[in-house]
Specification:
It is a single chain. The protein is of the alpha/beta class. Helix content is 52%, strand content 13%. The strands form 2 sheets. The protein has a 7-stranded mixed beta sheet. The chain is built from 11 helices and 9 strands. Strand 1, helix 1 and strand 2 form a beta-alpha-beta unit. It starts with 5 loop residues before the first strand and ends in a 7-residue tail after the last helix. The longest helix is centred in the C-terminal third of the chain and has 32 residues.
Length: 386
């Protein structure tokens, strides 16, 4: 049952699953917040956590003293159904005109909430995003592979879904409740903000920097299942955006749009290459590092092929003969591109006396663009200028 919203109240939605070591610290931090002329409703949505997160909070609420300007509620769901759906479930019960979404693992500092509300009021925007990727923002405690995964996911969202803010993958944001009116959210995966930004294009957004700190207690929810959910969500959002956008008639726009997608896929391949090579060279499989690197290259070439086939060139024909033939051509052109890159770097550095970083950039761009043209024409059978 949807609650009637109030202009003098904000609602903080906190989805939880196995956060018994963090939830009370988060609640106590929120209780220290004071917002002038605003009351704070905190709604914790627990997905039947096996570690007793819900019970711990229930016991705490039964014994805590009332804090002026604050109310805390807990909603129990019967099963683990995902972060986005938990947030939507909480919004159904929220009374606030303004909604704040945050994690329960202490990576999102509650003391930033007043600054988010202040920024929203001053700029009169619809959404305020706490951003890790603004100049003053930063991330503490992430290993290199996690940073690469996050950056790759962010670049895919920005380029593929035409999202312009620096941190569309942020899980810490505030928004005016009315922007959800008439909006159907699929609640796939774990990034509700991204879905709002794609489906609600007429909203105004402001980002403020913050320091993201990796959790100290409990286990991260990041894993293969989360990555697959993200890929599914991005694909569905891409299809959504493609269906509602006005058909572009200019051939140059089509050409450069596809080129941008091709280079974005190439960048994502670097992340796949690194991640797979790292996993296969460590205790997971314990291959010799060169063999692990070969596996990483094969994986990245394969994912690049599949992404370019379905996303860049929109080819849905997966008949066995056609797909294998395209795959062979793609691998061949990719290998040719690698040889061109190596040859150009050698020539520019040894014969033309260019510095290596500049030579590398020129070689990568040249080889990549040539790779795009060859695959566009010969692998996927498209006219070049289209």
């Amino acid at each position: 049952m949807t609650q009637i919203s109030s202009n003098n109240q904000i609602s903080i939605i906190i989805p939880t699953y196995n956060e018994s070591q963090n939830i009370l610290k988060v609640i106590e931090s929120i209780l220290k917040i004071q917002l002038q002329k605003l009351s704070i409703q905190t709604i914790v949505v627990d997905d039947n956590s096996p570690d007793g997160t819900g019970k711990i909070l229930e016991d705490y609420l039964n014994t805590m003293k009332q804090v002026a300007g604050h109310t805390i509620e807990i909603l129990h769901r019967k099963a683990k159904s995902g972060l986005s759906s938990a947030v939507l479930y909480g919004i159904e019960y929220a009374k606030g005109h303004t909604i704040v979404v945050m994690d329960s693992d202490l990576s999102h500092p509650p003391h930033l909430i007043p600054k988010m509300i202040e920024a929203m009021n001053k700029s009169k925007c619809d959404i305020v995003v706490a951003s890790r990727y603004l100049k003053e923002g930063k991330i503490i405690g992430w290993p290199l592979k996690r940073k690469i995964i996050s950056k790759t996911a962010t670049k895919i969202a920005k380029a593929g879904l035409r999202v312009s803010i620096e941190d569309p993958m942020s899980g810490f944001f505030a928004f005016k409740r009315y922007i959800l009116e008439g909006l159907k959210l699929d609640a796939i995966g774990y990034k509700m903000l991204l879905e709002i930004l794609v489906k609600k294009t007429n909203v105004t957004v402001k980002e403020i920097p913050y320091t993201f700190t990796e959790r100290q207690f409990g286990e991260s929810k990041m894993g293969l299942y989360t990555i697959l959910n993200y890929c599914t969500a991005v694909w569905k959002l891409y299809r959504y955006g493609r269906n509602i956008r006005t058909q572009e008639k200019r051939k140059s726009i089509h050409f450069f749009s596809k080129a941008a997608r091709f280079f974005t896929v190439g960048a994502s391949g670097l992340g796949v290459n690194y991640l797979i090579s790292f996993l296969f060279a460590t205790s997971m499989v314990d291959l010799w590092y060169l063999h692990a690197n070969i596996v990483g290259i094969v994986f990245s070439m394969t994912t690049n092929f599949l992404l370019n086939k379905t996303w860049t060139f929109g080819d849905r024909n997966f008949s066995t003969k056609r797909t294998l033939l395209q795959y062979g051509k793609f691998i061949g052109f990719s290998s040719l591109g690698a040889l061109v890159q190596l040859g150009m770097v050698y020539h520019l550095v040894e014969n033309s006396n260019w510095i290596y970083p500049t030579a590398l950039i020129i070689a990568v761009l040249t080889a990549g663009f040539g790779n795009f043209i060859l695959n566009k024409k010969w692998t996927f059978g498209e006219k070049i200028w289209n």
